[in-house]
Amino acid sequence: MSKSITFTIQPGGKLCGETRVPGDKSMSHRSIMLGSLAEGVTHVTGFLEAEDALATLQAFRDMGVEIEGPSNGCVTIHGVGKHGLKEPKNALYLGNSGTSMRLLSGLLAGQPFNSVLTGDKSLSGRPMKRVTDPLAKMGADIKTTEQGTAPLQITGKAGQLTAIDYTMPMASAQVKSCLLLAGMYAQGETRVTEPAPTRDHTERMLAGFAYPVTREGSTAMISAEGSLKAMDIDVPSDISSAAFFLVGASIAPGSDVTLKHVGINPTRTGVIDILRLMGANIEVLNEREVGGEPVADLHVVYSPLTGIDIPEHLVPLAIDEFPVLFVAAACAQGQTRLSGAEELRVKESDRIQVMADGLLILGVDAQPTPDGMVIQGGKPIGGGVVESHGDHRIAMSFSIAGLRTQAPITVLDCANVNTSFPEFKDLVKALGLDLVCTGA
Ligand SMILES: O=C(O)C1=C[C@@H](OP(=O)(O)O)[C@@H](O)[C@H](O)C1
Ligand SMILES: C=C(OP(=O)(O)O)C(=O)O
């Protein structure tokens, strides 16, 4: 991947029009995983054709699953059944994708073959003990580096995993999903309790594939009793990608944007709640249910924002949206304070430090704290050159900031936008952002 892609944004634009952002990344990963384990043929539409989801797709091809596509978001998966995966010939390379690595570690722990999971520089620095420790309690054998990072060397323990009753120390859908997938191969009932609600796409999709998974309060439960029946999946647009337009339209006077067919699962809509608390004008229209997931069109019109103390219960429900919410805070009158979000430090980059560094370059008073940020907003924002640190959400967030800076902003190292949203620059330009992409 080239490091030399640069986005340069001229100030003063606004966003107007209608668009459909690409498919949900979390659901795209899970559609490949569960479709591969199902009996029969699963058809997926709306699949996210971006590097992270494609890494998952390639990993299952490497384990012998026949997968057609993707073509225009359509993927056909010829499921091999719960016990049909084959030993991959080489290490499974998962690129930048934490979701792929953590969910696969659980799934592969109980297979009758060994496997190795690797990733790029960013993924190779992210904590994996959060999955390998509870998996070890189930009888898994997974070696990490001394720092608890990838590569993960998995010795398959088919028939030897036992269920655990585990309370997660952090609110993580990746850890929960990893353990539920391991629980499909473990003796007894695996119980995973979350300290706060996290995205529940794994549970919903398992139920869609007719695999028994139950819930008691904050505990999800699964066992090895069951099989997956192929189904058709329509992946809605990713609210995490829609978030760039929700913030962009909210901060740029004259904006008026409609985002079609967005997934509004309540475990994902923290960004709407937070923006509304700040004074944003967002309407949720045409609510419907598609394949077990709520979907709607979102209409957002410019509205002056005010700083708030972000309620901590909303943090896991907006976890990937904080980089762009920091941009909203920089444009909001008064102080915005985020706490309880230390997880942001272990994403594709340290999203607290990297955003604070970039905002300071633009002249925004942004004070990082161990678990969040305090931003004094509402003052004029300058231009300048900021680094994305190879993190897709940082690159797109600073591009959106260009709607309100007083001079051009240049965002370096933007190739990683392909991780989750390759169409970003085209869609945002079509709605009115003056963005020029240079480099190759
Ligand atoms: O389960 C998922 O698909 C994801 C869960 C979240 O990570 P954590 O579970 O580490 O919070 C999120 O940040 C990530 O982008 C996708
Ligand atoms: C954190 C993210 O993804 P992952 O953990 O799958 O790399 C993200 O997309 O913002």
TrEMBL record:
GO annotation (BP), single: chorismate biosynthetic process
Entry GO terms, CC: cytoplasm
Binding site for 3-phosphoshikimate: K25, S26, R30, S172, Q174, D320, K347
Main location per the UniProt record: cytoplasm
Active site per UniProt: D320
Subcellular compartments: Cytoplasm
Gene3D superfamilies with a match to the protein in the record: Enolpyruvate transferase domain
Function noted in UniProt: Catalyzes the transfer of the enolpyruvyl moiety of phosphoenolpyruvate (PEP) to the 5-hydroxyl of shikimate-3-phosphate (S3P) to produce enolpyruvyl shikimate-3-phosphate and inorganic phosphate.
Family according to the record: Belongs to the EPSP synthase family.
Name listed for the protein in its UniProt record: 3-phosphoshikimate 1-carboxyvinyltransferase
Gene expressing this chain: aroA
